[in-house]
Amino acid sequence: MCSYCGCDSIEVIGRFMSEHVEIINATGKLRRAVLSADQGEVATTKAAVAALLWPHTVAEEAGLFRVMARDEVFAAHISSLCDEHEALSGLLDAVRPGDASGMARFEDVLREHIEKEDNGLFPAAAIALDGPDWVEVHAVTPHSHDGGASHVHAEPHQPAADHPPDSAPGTAAATAPHGADEGEEPMNHTVPLATSSGGGCTCGHDTQAEPVLDVRLIPHAIRHGSVFGAFDAVPMGGALVLVAPHNPLPLLTQLAERAPIGVEYLVEGPDEWRLRIRRIADDPALSSVS
Question: Domain 193-286 class?
């Protein structure tokens, strides 16, 4: 992961992604129970899904969602995710033995919702929220290991010694818990922010730690805000590698209005545009968008 956003040490995001895997695995068991039309098994597996899903959604809304919703860039998207939490409640309640179509509706909405969070909201949060924001998120988020009470870790970005992280530092994928059923469709947990290991440039700046932000994986509603948050974390002389589905000239213009930048095109279409955007000295004459 990049050295600017601190993704590899954000405990709450790793926890939520790990819980997503648990929820999907439990949903697979519910699907099989529904298809078997076993009323008792459906009741048991349905309760198991609910026991994982509802504490999870409450924790998201109480901490991360509440903090991010203060920013108008994210407010509408957060509101839509909360609405989806409500919709999932109704869809799960409606699941009945033998009702394959009802089960499919619940599972489809659930997977789409998780995809929006894992590959959209969480990466955006990692690059948009600052230190005090994360302190607050950790303070108000109910934690699963202490019965749901909110608390603050002594080091907000480092898991406590007796509370191992939900995902290993430096990884962008949450893995299924031990004992997960074979045959379950794996969840895609790709986080669109990585570290560039490409060759160096001739300016003398070390490119090894340049973050790479793939905006194709971020919802349109929060795409520009995510880029702004990522670039704001880039130090003077540093750079951000941006990957986009088209030439992002309007976005570059907006970035140039926020701070002087230099732009180097690494790949120019047709399906992928890759640019190195460098923060340069505060001299408008040096800012270039081509």
Answer: alpha beta
